[in-house]
Amino acid sequence: MFAFIVDDILVIDLACGFGWCGSPAWYFLPGALINGLYENAVLTPPVSLQPPLSGLFWCDDHTCIEVDRGMRCVIANLALRRAINTVLGPSAINERKFTNWSNNRACTGTRMGNKSGHRHDTAR
Asked: Which long-range contacts (CB under 8 A, 24 or more apart) does 19-28 make?
């Protein structure tokens, strides 16, 4: 994704990088379906989640940020896998792309931790 100016025209390219040939609109439909199924997961046996699961997606990347309370993270993991399997089939689940649930994660050069609330700069 990038932007540039030609004369008086601002051009914003929102195509997905890393070899994807379609625009975000091309990936929006399956992404929206997966996210909708995730957020409205029907669980067996029925489990009431308060607040409900909340998913985020851009093109074909899904991000689940959940409170680590009880079985919530396990339920979120299963709900996302079921949604991906339903929309794209079992071969679409790439285990290497699933990250483990963690209290600490690096993002944009900053290590974030939710246990202590501290940020640790990891950029060099």
From this structure: 20/59, 20/60, 24/58, 24/59, 27/59, 27/60, 28/59
The 3-state DSSP class for residue 61 equals strand
Query: What would you report as the CA-atom Rg of the chain, rounded to the nearest whole angstrom?
Result: 18
Q: With 50 as the cut, is the pLDDT of residue 121 above it?
A: no
**Could you tell me whether strands 110-113 and 55-58 are parallel, antiparallel, or unpaired per DSSP bridges?**
unpaired
**% of the chain surpassing 90 pLDDT:** 10
DSSP β-ladder status, 9-13 and 55-58: unpaired
Classified as helix, coil or strand, 33 is helix
Question: Is 9 inside any structural domain?
Answer: no
| Residues 59 and 87: beta-carbon distance below 8 Å | no
Is 88 among the domain residues? yes
**Domain count of the chain?**
1
What domain range is 41 assigned to? 23-121
